[in-house]
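Aim 2, interim progress: modelling of the magnesium ion-bound target.
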Amino acid sequence: MALLELKNVSLIYHSHDGETEALSDISLEVASGEFVAIVGPSGCGKTTLLSILAGLIAPSDGEVLVKGRPVGEARNVTALMPQRDQLFEWRSIYRNVLLGPEIKRNKDKEICAYADELLTKYGLGEFRKKRPSELSGGMRQRAALIRTLVTKPELLLLDEPFSALDFQTRLTVCDDVERIIREEGKTAVLVTHDISEAISMSDKVVVLSSRPACVEKIYDITLDKSIPPLKRREQKSFPVYFRSIWKDMEAPNE
Ligand code: ADP
Ligand code: MG
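Predicted structure of the complex, ligand included:
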């Protein structure tokens, strides 16, 4: 059974000036342990789709199942990492990482130990007491990821997590984030408008059309996953995927 299943999901926003159709008949499956990237042009409905996967908004039509049950019933299975790192400057890195458990009032010894373990394992042990502004962009992103991991979700939802970073940092953070997610054995859905990022990090790329988003195509990425994403960009089939997805995204929406 797939960890995540979307069946014919559509979404229409209703507002004062009328209706906006954001998603149209989207069906998709994500297997446990899979890393799925979703690409699509800006404004096509990617954040909307992630919000639905996170159970934050209900689809107008269709259903979303997590482990075979409606997404609303699947508490603590998924965690959403937002577009900006949203670390709070008045808290230390350690206390930022423990923000979720603190709000949910389930911060216990075990969670604190796990937070410590992750921070140390991923090179932030010495920065526990620092404030976010004392860290580089890449480190902040790692801290934000650790904050998402601390509640032990099975499924991570990442919304353009690298968009605030400069190009160079972005490349190394992609490597970091991909490695951490795979090492921790998580399932991930990454939304991005960056085709190279999608191909280099994932097992599967889902290409969305422009708004209202529907699934244009799905690619199985057969690059060598034993090497880091940045290195995967040098593999022969990388530009082949790139050109093909580029074309899909150029295609007019019918
Ligand atoms: P993306 O993340 O791909 O850039 P979004 O999912 O944020 O796209 O938005 C898709 C479309 O839905 C856009 O046209 C946007 O203006 C519209 N939209 C997003 N959120 C709302 C909302 N809360 N109410 C009305 N329209 C919205
Ligand atoms: Mg968005």
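Residues 86-152 form one domain. The chain has a mean pLDDT of 92.
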